[in-house]
Amino acid sequence: MGTCFSVLIRMELARPGDQILGGNHQLYNVLITAHAFLMIFFMVMPAMIGGFGNWFVPILIGAPDMAFPRLNNISFWLLPPSLLLLLSSALVEVGSGTGWTVYPPLSGITSHSGGAVDLAIFSSINFITTIFNMRGPGMTMHRLPLFVWSVLVTAFLLLLSLPVLAGAITMLLTDRNFNTTFFDPAGGGTPSYTSISFEVYILILPGFGIISHIVSTFSGKPVFGYLGMVYAMISIGVLGFLVWAHHMFTVGLDVDTRAYFTAATMIIAVPTGINLRFYYWVGKITGRTYPETLGKIHFWITFFGVNLTFFPMHFLGLSGMPRRIPDYPDAYAGWNALSSFGSYISVVGICCFFVVVTITLSSGNQNKCAQSWLLNRIQPHWNGWYKVLQLFILLGNFQLSRRRKA
């Protein structure tokens, strides 16, 4: 659904003038809002944290299950009603066209109705408790796989930043319904309060951990600079709280403040630089191998499609094309047409992905996965640690048996 919305946006922007939306600028903004909310809060976050996190964190740390399975269940079942609220907001009056940031005054009472946002605080508490208290014997913090570290840092980010988001949403609701003026300059408020956002680091950190596993596995070598990678991810989490004003350069900040946030934003690139997942773990999840040739075809189609879609947008932004407006001068037509063509290629890549998934799940016993994937074993960042872990377990059992005999 989110992909369909993005393709509709690109079809509208493929040529200058009014296209498939018939000049309805509000509907264009509603599509942008729905696309962003669906992809961020109902695809990336549930897949990274709820999907891969809940499945693999217990396996990778040697725990039998998450610490609070029922809490996990609650956080999952909050998704369907919140998704229903988001989709239904598009049907109320003219729809919610605030953009995913929901910044005032566009989201204020004078503009239009608001949407729904899913919170992941329950899952964060669950991950933190599981990782700190349910590690296997010998699995110290400095032996945790990098994916587990990335989930841990992300859980702290969610736990500390989402209450800020919830508070801002609550203030926005009271502005709209109870005549408060938190974000209304007429009553002493300011729209800048809602510009504090840490979402990008919440989305990218689990990806860093997964990529580290993939590179280590397929290169056949341990991750170089394991501790450096760990503290790099922690640094990204800490610095993520100190760069929020880079969203606010146009609101009249003084020169010193702009200089600090510019420097802090560049500094966060340092730990980021120190730092495909479905194909990597599909064997572990399903017990079957995917058709490798089709997987490569899907990769290259998606690679060219995504880059052809988003690279022209950089040049359009540098040229001064206005955002959130479905019409534009003829001078921007070339790059927009190229970007729209790239989105069509990406849709072909998505269809190819679904073909790969269908073949993988329906192949029966013909392409049974290798036994190494079927073992419910711990996979630390370096396979040598697995042997060390086994030795610790054996020594512990031996000492326990000696004490019982004594």
From TrEMBL:
Pathway(s) annotated for this protein in UniProt: Energy metabolism; oxidative phosphorylation
Function field: Component of the cytochrome c oxidase, the last enzyme in the mitochondrial electron transport chain which drives oxidative phosphorylation. The respiratory chain contains 3 multisubunit complexes succinate dehydrogenase (complex II, CII), ubiquinol-cytochrome c oxidoreductase (cytochrome b-c1 complex, complex III, CIII) and cytochrome c oxidase (complex IV, CIV), that cooperate to transfer electrons derived from NADH and succinate to molecular oxygen, creating an electrochemical gradient over the inner membrane that drives transmembrane transport and the ATP synthase.
Subcellular localization, as worded in the UniProt entry: Mitochondrion inner membrane
Recorded family membership: Belongs to the heme-copper respiratory oxidase family.
Keyword Metal-binding: yes
SUPFAM superfamilies per UniProt: Cytochrome c oxidase subunit I-like
Membrane topology field: Multi-pass membrane protein
Biological source species: Salix viminalis
EC number(s) from the headed UniProt entry: 7.1.1.9
Catalysed reactions listed for this entry: 4 Fe(II)-[cytochrome c] + O2 + 8 H(+)(in) = 4 Fe(III)-[cytochrome c] + 2 H2O + 4 H(+)(out)
Segments forming domain Cytochrome oxidase subunit I profile: 1-380
Keyword list, A-Z: Copper, Electron transport, Heme, Iron, Membrane, Metal-binding, Mitochondrion, Mitochondrion inner membrane, Respiratory chain, Transmembrane, Transmembrane helix, Transport
Name of this chain's protein: Cytochrome c oxidase subunit 1
Any one GO cellular component localisation term in the record: mitochondrial inner membrane
GO MF annotation: an example: cytochrome-c oxidase activity
Transmembrane residue ranges: 36-62, 74-92, 112-134, 146-173, 193-211, 223-247, 259-278, 299-321, 341-361
Single Gene Ontology BP annotation: electron transport coupled proton transport
